[in-house]
Amino acid sequence: MNTNQHTDKKEIILTGDRATGPLHLGHYVGSLKQRVALQNSHEQTILVADMQGLTDNAHDPKKVSSNILNVVADYLAVGIDPTKTTICLQSQLPALAELTMYYSNLVSISRLERNPTVKSEIQSKGFERSIPAGFLTYPISQAADITAFNASLVPVGDDQLPMLEQTNEIVRKINSLARRHILNECRPLLSKASRLPSTDGKNKMSKSMGNAINLGATEKEISAAVKSMYTDPNHIRVEDAGNVEGNVVFTYLDAFHPDESYISELKDHYQRGGLGDGTTKKILETCLQEMLKPIREKRSELLNDKAQLLDILAKGSQISREKTAQVLSDVKDVFGLNIF
Ligand code: ATP
Ligand code: MG
């Protein structure tokens, strides 16, 4: 399989996912769909972030190692094509860890503590004063991931915006120390659903919160998740006028239903009154069942051939080791450390 059909002219994309669980609907609308579309026009690398997964799971490393191939299967099942996109494993690229060490000297602890996503994750994970150093510094390691490929475009959910800001601060410091342009600044590519809520509407859908509808969810799981979905608590009788803002069923219909004008009519009807939550949930369920069935089937077929998934990851990691060597050498040069 040829995994290196890229030309130097294409804009470079680097993006990735922590190997902390199978991927879910939030990943699908937040980033995966865009990656599938962009793999034809861009030089795209996707990183399975196993080391970053360990930053809050070192007490349970199997949670990370056992999910690496699940994530690769999810990529392929939604249409990532390994002949167009390089898929690699973070821990297999030593340049990323080395860059993280160099960049760590350019970022203050107080800057890391101000990162709003990290701040809220520290709270929700209950770390209090026992924050793993690797967790507090994971935005630096993410900067290493992005810059190692000299990527300029990163398709992400909006929780990642502070990471991209942090990356660009490091890029500017390195370029300023070098007194020449070495690293590219990057920009986010946000989708129209850049923060898909969980079905209860309380948080972002997330692997670690146990609140996700996975891409491999069974028919029963999908059905149960939609039935339990948060709607408008004041919409009691069918004839009542309902609110679509903050109503998770409508948030999901906006994100996943292919017919925008139909959803717009449905919203008008709901707001006028006369449309029950049972009906809107049924429409959403049908839409999700249709969308997820082929993904679930493909995913399960792929997971029956783990050797093939490992092979894709090994080949992509080899290509990525070669790609990341140049930036590491450039950064070492900035610090005067290419002495042999
Ligand atoms: P974890 O709970 O382990 O952090 P996660 O569900 O947040 O897992 P990540 O691996 O951290 O997933 O994120 C991978 C990518 O998916 C990032 O670009 C992130 O912004 C995006 N993403 C994750 N959850 C959502 C969501 N609910 N809506 C939109 N994008 C999302
Ligand atoms: Mg996350």
Describe this structure in words.
- The chain is mainly alpha-helical.
- The N terminus is likely disordered.
- Helices cover 53% and strands 7% of the residues.
- The protein has 2 domains: 215 residues, HUPs (Rossmann fold), CATH 3.40.50.620; 81 residues, Tyrosyl-Transfer RNA Synthetase.
- It contains 15 helices and 5 strands.
- The chain is globular, with a radius of gyration of 21 Å.
- It starts with 11 loop residues before the first strand and ends in a 6-residue tail after the last helix.
- The longest helix has 29 residues.
- A 3-stranded parallel β-sheet has the order 1-2-3. A two-stranded parallel sheet has the order 4-5.
- Helix 10 links the parallel strand 4 and strand 5.
- The chain binds adenosine-5'-triphosphate (ATP) and magnesium ion.
- Magnesium ion binds next to loops.
The proportion of residues forming helix, as a percent range, comes to 40-55%
Strand order of the largest sheet: 1-2-3
The CATH architecture name of the largest domain reads: 3-Layer(aba) Sandwich
Rg over CA atoms, rounded to whole Å, is 21 Å
CATH class descriptor of the largest domain: Alpha Beta
Secondary structure category: mainly alpha
CATH superfamily of the largest domain: HUPs
Distance between the termini: 36 Å
Bound molecules: adenosine-5'-triphosphate, magnesium ion
The residue-averaged pLDDT reads 95
